[in-house]
UniProtKB/TrEMBL annotation:
InterPro entries: MeTrfase_TrmA_AS (IPR030390), MeTrfase_TrmA_CS (IPR030391), NA-bd_OB-fold (IPR012340), SAM-dependent_MTases_sf (IPR029063), TRAM_dom (IPR002792), U5_MeTrfase_fam (IPR010280). Belongs to the class I-like SAM-binding methyltransferase superfamily. RNA M5U methyltransferase family. S-adenosyl-L-methionine binds at residues 287, 316, 337, 385. CDD domains: AdoMet_MTases. This is 23S rRNA (Uracil-5-)-methyltransferase RumA. It comes from the Bacteria. Keywords: Methyltransferase, S-adenosyl-L-methionine, Transferase. Pfam families: TRAM, tRNA_U5-meth_tr. Residues 5-63 form the TRAM domain. The lineage of its organism: Bacteria, Bacillati, Bacillota, Bacilli, Lactobacillales. The active site is at residue 412.
């Protein structure tokens, strides 16, 4: 067996030297790394080793010998334990610096671009209760329906009612919906046995409109008194304009199944974003922090320097938030998105807002971009807003082939962003500047906008 400098259950004193990208304190013993929850750089802590792995280990704090000036009192340990708010022990100012550094490190280490300026993270004035969406597992605890969140790296539920980062009206609605379901004798899902009925309660609330959608994710299609329950939910929470049953029969961590049934009202909610109205269906993506999403998009539009003659591509377009927001400032918008329901929303959103110069297609961005290139579409600006895995190399190839002046990359993962910027650079497109915008206060998630321009040579 390999010799490690620490053993399981060993107790020792260490100094925290760094914060991992997931917000865990890091201490080095010889060259071996220990990851420690609720520990900040500079703190000296007595720890107990929990786990010794091949490359690194985990430990927990037994006692703080000294604490960081950046530490804030976090009354609720559950927020750290569940990973709902894993940075809530760090002052908000320090969180913003942490995020800027995350981007800088990735640009330096992965992209090899230490020279690209990363601007200070734009934060929120009130960095709590910002989420417009909640996805809450339901389990049985002490014979009753319970809502809360899983302990990190496990599926043990911790009952929670104040989620701290969610819209408070959503927190209240979760409790009310749970009580109504309890009254009707609805059974919670049991994950281990793959039995029971109600898996998740998902709630979305329009930041401006206050329209609420409640999605009940169930293991089986047959929902005894489903419509009556939905009516009662609307009666007791008048903001609810849509109650949907989503059926997920699989043994899976994926929340939504394929099938859905409208139990009450509409199949969507509407909200406003940058003065336009957007319809959002249950399977469609919508940024969870509306206030900051507006700043994110404004930054992206500012970087794009749009002109009335511009042809614009909105890739990974969701319900069309980016493209439709700029349609009246440009010649034409072409959008592509892989989820059909989201594209249906985008088309209706164009209509609702009286936009006639936008074309939205269902498809994989990498395929449709290649097709557009073949059809000789010549965009001036390409907006990309991919999921965490970043862009497909084929997308980058097709995008640079149509030679846009500028590409504006909205990223939710600095590591894949850095990887992609390297590919763009190899194809003659240079990253000019990066603006992180904090869409996820109290968590380690980092969102940023990058301006990428074609080199003139
Ligand atoms: N721009 C939108 C959505 C961004 S989220 C907004 O700001 O709201 C990323 C979107 O990319 C999701 O809607 C997801 O469904 C979509 N997506 C994921 N992989 C894709 C692919 N290969 N091609 C096209 N769209 C994809």
């Amino acid at each position: 067996m390999k010799d490690y400098p620490v053993k399981k259950n060993q107790e020792l004193t260490v100094t925290i030297t760094d914060l991992s990208h997931e917000g865990m304190g890091i201490a080095k013993v010889d060259h071996y790394l220990l990851f420690i929850e609720n520990a900040l750089p500079g703190e000296v802590v007595d720890i107990k080793v929990l786990k010794v792995g091949n490359k690194f280990g985990f430990a927990k704090v037994m006692k703080y010998q000294s604490t960081s000036p950046d530490r804030v009192k976090n009354a609720n340990e559950d927020l750290l334990r569940t990973g709902i708010a894993p940075l809530s022990h760090l002052s908000y100012e320090a969180q913003l610096v942490f995020k800027q550094k995350q981007v800088e490190n990735n640009l330096k280490k992965i992209a090899g671009m230490p020279e690209v300026p990363v601007l200070p993270t734009i934060g929120m004035a009130k960095p709590d209760h910002y989420r417009n969406k909640a996805q809450i597992p339901v389990r049985k605890i002490d014979g009753k329906l319970a809502t809360g969140f899983y302990r990190k790296n496990s599926h043990d539920m911790i009952a929670i009612e104040d989620f701290y980062i969610q819209d408070e009206a959503i927190d209240e609605a979760i409790v009310k919906v749970r009580e109504i379901l309890e009254r009707f004798g609805v059974k919670a899902y049991n994950e281990t046995a793959h039995e029971g009925f109600l898996r998740h309660i998902v709630i979305r609330r329009g930041h401006y409109s206050h329209e609420m959608m409640v999605v009940l994710v169930t293991r089986k299609a047959k929902f005894f008194k489903g419509e009556t329950i939905a009516e009662v939910i609307h009666e007791e929470i008048p903001e609810v304009v849509s109650v949907i049953q989503n059926i997920n029969e699989e043994r899976t961590n994926v929340i939504f199944g394929e099938k859905e049934v409208v139990l009450y009202g509409k199949s969507y909610i509407e909200d406003q974003l940058l003065g336009k109205t957007f319809r959002i269906s249950a399977p469609s993506f919508y940024q969870v922090n509306t206030e900051q999403a507006e700043i994110l998009y404004e930054t992206a539009f500012d970087f794009a320097q749009l002109k009335k003659t511009d042809v614009v591509i909105d890739a990974y377009s969701g319900i069309g938030t980016i493209g439709l927001s700029v349609a009246d400032r440009v010649d034409h918008v072409y959008g592509v998105e892989s989820i059909p329901e989201a594209v249906a929303d985008a088309k209706i959103n164009a209509e609702i807002n009286g936009i006639e110069n936008a074309t939205y297609l269902v498809g994989k961005a990498e395929k449709v971009m290649t097709q557009w290139a073949r059809e000789d579409l010549k965009p001036d600006i390409i907006f990309v807003d991919p999921p965490r895995k970043g862009l497909d190399a084929r997308f980058i190839e097709a995008a640079v082939n149509v030679a846009p002046d500028r590409i504006v990359y909205v990223s939710c993962n600095p590591a894949t962003l850095a990887r992609d910027l390297k590919l763009f650079a190899a194809a003659g497109y240079q990253a000019e500047k990066v603006q992180p915008v904090d869409l996820f206060p109290q968590t380690y998630h980092v969102e940023c906008v990058v301006l990428i321009t074609r080199k003139n040579d």
